[in-house]
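[Primary structure, fold]
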Amino acid sequence: MTCRHPRLLTCGDTAITIEFGDAIDAGLNAAVLALDARLAEAALPGVVETVPTYRSLTVHCDPVAADPAELAQAILRLACSDLPSPRAGRIWRIPVVYGGEFGVDLGAVAKHHGLSPDAVIARHVEPEYRVAMLGFLPGYAYLSGLDPALALSRRPASRPTTPAGTISIGGAQALVASIAAPSGWHLLGRTPVRSFMPGRDPIFLLEPGDGVCFEPVDPGRWDALDRAAAAGELVAERLDA
């Protein structure tokens, strides 16, 4: 993977951002994840934490442990090097109850696209999504790979709160929500999976680069799956293990 003319941005004296582009693009995200992996291998002095996004990587650093300007140039050289392909992530199958009280916007999304609710569900579960980034709130997983036929601008007004586990779409993106929060996305369903659960190992279920497949489940299974997840079971299934 060759250099995509990355741009270096300094964020004060404790963070550096490398931008690979300005769009939601699988190739840009692959470059971000490849640089993230290369930095982990390089173990440069002064690097504290990395935060990958769709198109950029922010590196938090300790200005006492390393000169920020020198560290920034070292990171930029890595970004412009022949980066390896990002590692193959884990692949998760996540159960989802679609429609009804679990996905209050399913009918409206179907009507907008001239599809039946079942057709929307079928299109939503067909792809293998990729976790492009975690952001906004702990464990919120932003997914690339949504069928373009389902793409839909966000709602004109946000809801003041939506449940944890909401499976939603907005624009060309899909989302697995980790905790209850306001949202202007379209709610298709809900999963009992806790993608963020303090006290559990792992605290965060999903990582950037992971694959995600959705599996429709009957509403009658919700209570049992939700109890199991609340007790610390992952509920999601590893398909690559």
